[in-house]
Fold:
Amino acid sequence: MTQRPPIESVDRAVRVLQALASAGPSGVTLVELAGQVELNKATTHRMLAALKYRDFAAQDLQSGRYLLGGAAGELGAVFFNNENLAAMVHPALLALSSNISELIHLGMLNGAKIVYLDKVEPDRAVRVFSAIGSAVPAVSTAMGRALLSARGIQEQELAPYMEALAAGTRPAALKVEDVWRQLEFARSNGYAREDQENEEGISCIAVPLYQGTRPIAAVSITAPAERMTTRRMAELYGTILADLGPMLPPGLSLE
Structure:
C-alpha cells in the first residue's frame, strides 16, 4: 500500500518545484508540467501562483513557460555559505587527512581569487603559507583551476583572472596559455593540479565540490613537491573519490 504524504498540498508544491528544477533554463509549459506532476491544470496553476508569489517559480513573459524562481537558488546559497560549508565539510576533511597524512584545504572562489575556508593539517608538518580567510589568485592554485574548469571558463574569459596575479610574485610568471592547458587537463582528468606555481616546493591536486550541478567550492591535497609525483597525484585523486565522496554531507557531491 502506497503511503500518503502527511500534507498533500505541500507534497504537490514540492513535486512542482522538482519538475521546474529538472526543466532547467528552457522551462516548461503548464500542460507539460501538469502531466509531469500528475495533477490537473487548474491545481498546477494554483501551485504555480503560490510559488511565484514567493519567487520560487517564474514565468517567461514571451513564451509563457514556467521556470524555477530565484528564491529557490538563494535557499541553497544561504545554507551553503562560507561558515556553514566549512563546518559541514570539516569532519570529512579530517578523515581524509588522517587517512593520507597530508594537508587538506577547502576553498571557494571570490571574484578572481580563491579564499581558504578551512585547513586540516596532518601529524607530520607541512610548511605552507596558507591561512583561513586569506586569498590567492585562482589561476595559480589547484583549487581555483578545479573550479574554473568545472564552471566551463573558456580561454578568452581568463583575462580578469590573469589580472589578479600580482606583479613580482611567482604566479606572475604564468601565461594564459599555461593556465588554459591546466584547465583542459582538469576537464580531461577530473582533478586540477598545481606544481610549485603558488608556493615554491609545494604541489597540490584539487577537485570541485558540487551543490547539485553547481560547483561551489573545492578541496585540495597539499604536499611537498618531491612527494607529489604524477603517479602520486593520480593515486590521491582515486582516494578522494573513494573516501571523501561518501563522507560528504547531503546536498554536496564530487560530481
Remarks:
- The beta strands are 57-59, 66-68, 103-110, 113-120, 135-137, 192-195, 202-211, 214-224, 252-253.
- The mean pLDDT is 87.
- The two ends are 35 Å apart (CA to CA).
- The chain has two domains: 8-76, 80-253.
